[in-house]
Records
---
Amino acid sequence: GERPHVLTVQDGNISTSTTARWVVDASGRNRTLARQLGLRRGSEHNCNAVWLRVAAEVDVNQWSDDPSWRSRLTEGDRALSTNHLMGEGYWVWLIRLASGATSVGIVADPAFHPLERFNTLAKAQAWLGEYEPQCAAVLAQHQNSIKDFRVMRHYSHAVAKVYDGRDRWCLTGDAAIFLDPLYSSGLDLIAIGNGLITDMLVRELDGEDVVARAGISDSLFRSLTEMWLAVYRNQYGLMGSPIVMSAKVIWDIAFYWGFLGLLYSNGRFARVADDPGVVPHLQGLIDLSNRMQQFFREWAAVEPRRPSATFVDLYSPMSFMSTFHTAMIGRATDYTAQFHANARLLRQVAGQLVETVVAEKCERFSEDDVMRQAQAWQSDAFLRELRSAYRHEQLTNPISPDWVPGCVPALEFS
Ligand SMILES: Cc1cc2nc3c(=O)[nH]c(=O)nc-3n(C[C@H](O)[C@H](O)[C@H](O)COP(=O)(O)OP(=O)(O)OC[C@H]3O[C@@H](n4cnc5c(N)ncnc54)[C@H](O)[C@@H]3O)c2cc1C
């Protein structure tokens, strides 16, 4: 009803009460309000993470003496980037911290790597020795500088509702939803959610009825997170297939820049409630994302696990990544035109990937499972539409096929 919320704040032994018209819960994994309202939901994505800090500046530049690898980076320092080491069912992060320490984390799907195999420091080091021996050896060199070790079981969680305009409460950050640490989507979701929340609150405090708006923003936020979860769910196996995974990483970033990045930098999430006409267009991109994630799984199932040392330059000539990146900087002069241009380019990129992979797999006549999959792709109406969009767009707006490593380009263009 209209009555204010009553909140009790405990500071040491002193307990005080206050009232508020709105409550925004940002209590992180405590999930205070979701717990109180019975809204907590588990996630079908049940990976685990452990991490430690070592008081040393781990320098990955020293990990190989291959001159082409060493000289590839012409600006910046790869040791200062977050580096990801990947294998089937897991990734390991290396993050240099401002304090001079390095954070090392293992994130793994229990279907491949049960948490019990790496849930203590000693076990994690033994696990690294087996799967990432170079990393394990570097840690062993700094054994006495390992400072702490943390375990997070089943880090992903969901919630039945994030905003309620009638009862005037919102959940933000980990108090609402957490997906996965890969790609650092945690803070992106916090930024998107906080934009929706502040928009709603300011309007309501200005006297507007925001009940319907809260409902729309609630379903928008949960649809986006559901789509985003599919980027991770059942996809950790792909990390053992360098060819598939490098294409997936590029696709995932392209999609994030071209769709979520564009909407965010143009302040469009909060405006969806004013313009229901955009919903089918958003749904079209959500469907595209979900189909592509399924495609990556299907592809990995028929892709031999050959090692690939191919380097993919995201900013090579005719790269769509530069286009998406540039479009995301600042506000678009004509946002609607930019949205549709990005959606078209994403379909072209998806179509190029499918076309390239199908062409390559169609040559493997002798392998029944590969042929069956290639035929299924060829008769899939959704994928056929993407491939034809690709062929059509290639005539006027060609993009480079170099981002699909290990595959023969399906279409040449001059
Ligand atoms: C393994 C792992 C790696 C990650 N890596 C990254 C990354 O590289 N990049 C990235 O962007 N994100 C990363 N994230 C996600 C990111 O850390 C979180 O999404 C983010 O910190 C959540 O912020 P928050 O403010 O919601 O919660 P928190 O940062 O947890 O803050 C919640 C605060 O609320 C306080 N609190 C709790 N209960 C109460 C209460 N009852 N009363 C008062 N105060 C309370 C807590 O003390 C805390 O200070 C990672 C997450 C995991 C699990």
---
Amino acid sequence: MVLPKIWRPRVAVCGIHIESSTFSPQLAYEHDFTVTRGEALLNRFSWREETWSQAIDWLPVLHARALPGGVIHRPVFDAWVAEILEGVKALHAEKPLDGLFFDVHGAMSVEGLLDAEGDLITAIREIIGPDVLVSLSTDLHGNMSEALFNGCDLLTTYRMAPHEDALESRRRAMYNLAMRLLSGQGKPAKSLVHIPILLPGEKTSTRIEPAKRLYSRIPYLEALPGVVDAAFWIGFAWADQPRCKAAVVVTADLPQEELEALTLDWAQEIWDARDEFEFVAPVDSMENCLQWAETAQRPTFISDSGDNPGAGGANDVTYALHHLLNWEPTMSGKLHTICVSLHDAESVAVAVATGVGNIADFVVGGKIDSRWPGPQSLRAKVSFIGDDPLGSTSAVLRVVRTVDGVEVETGLDVVVTKGRNQFGALATFQRLGLDPREADVVVVKIGYLEPDLYAMHKDWKMALTPGGVDQDLIRLDHKLINRPMVPFDCDPEVLDAVELHAITVGR
Ligand SMILES: [Zn+2]
């Protein structure tokens, strides 16, 4: 037995990661992102010290990552692309690269582009050529375009929604890349099948059927001899682009026909489940949710789902707030309601100038997304001002009203934040002196409840509120997606006639 030769594969690392709603008027700018280069970029990977990882020369280029939000302002994107391409070019010229780790979301939108990730990997390929092994990691709410598929050799995505396995997915993408390079196995074969389904994450959580069952096929597929990875993208519903749809990709060291049959079989299983996808919680209009909440169990949660910043909502739509300001049970002080949260730096500034314990007039929200129905005037006592770990200031406003010439507190707390924020964890509330477990009703800009909130809720409904990430997809009026597409087309005859096709590339 001869010991393997010691050589150090050279692997570039780059990517831009954001989930963008194209139905929201907001844009994403550089300040919305955390940009890392050099060692800071590599420090994102906690497995750097593992032996397999140490055998690779990871070469950081640029990585930019933001919370879900709007479409990226074009000059910001162009500058990062130029930096990535120049960086990759310089590394490749210095000594040819062996691999590249492409760390993206898959639902990034950029002004004027319909497939930003596909365009970027195509441009990178023009520099590194066809032989360098490219490994891709994405969010399962990303889209698998043909360009992205063509540009990558190893393709994987998260397998859990909520995304408890986000880091594990990146590690898998890097590990598989390292192993293929060190073993000299080179590129596996790959097969892609698109499925004409476009659904919100709130119908496709892997905690419930049918997604739970469809994703649980992955360990069986991966246990088959020769299979490297099996990946299933739900796709991203809140962008209007031809690439937006579900997809599966299987990568394997298998004969092309065998791999293709395997991939088509899995895709067909998903397609056959098309009528099973339901919302993770009961849904209703905001009006009906409030009426129901009067007698529901406490704490009662209402998801203001159409403006969920976690999916790309503007985070300042006032539809829910407007309804709360007209909801007698809380305005009379009978019920304590927490309304979290509106991205509104101006109102935070007014709160800071007013000071805790004092009353002032505010015009809250509707400054980014002024539809439905726009800024809300209210008078409130500043009851708390706090900073979050990202350095953004937030304020709790207890709405007051005048009764017989005297200002009295209502039961409504409205939280305004200087930066985009989501109240998905108990600690985020506690930093502002709020305890959702003690409240009667919590109206939160979110879709499915994140683990902390899920654990404490006694009753929960999802309000189908309008906004950039409206759960009622039909209302959004997509123009560019392929048809037929579930749920936009529902004629059973048309859907039954759909045939799935595989795009398969051999070794
Ligand atoms: Zn996601």
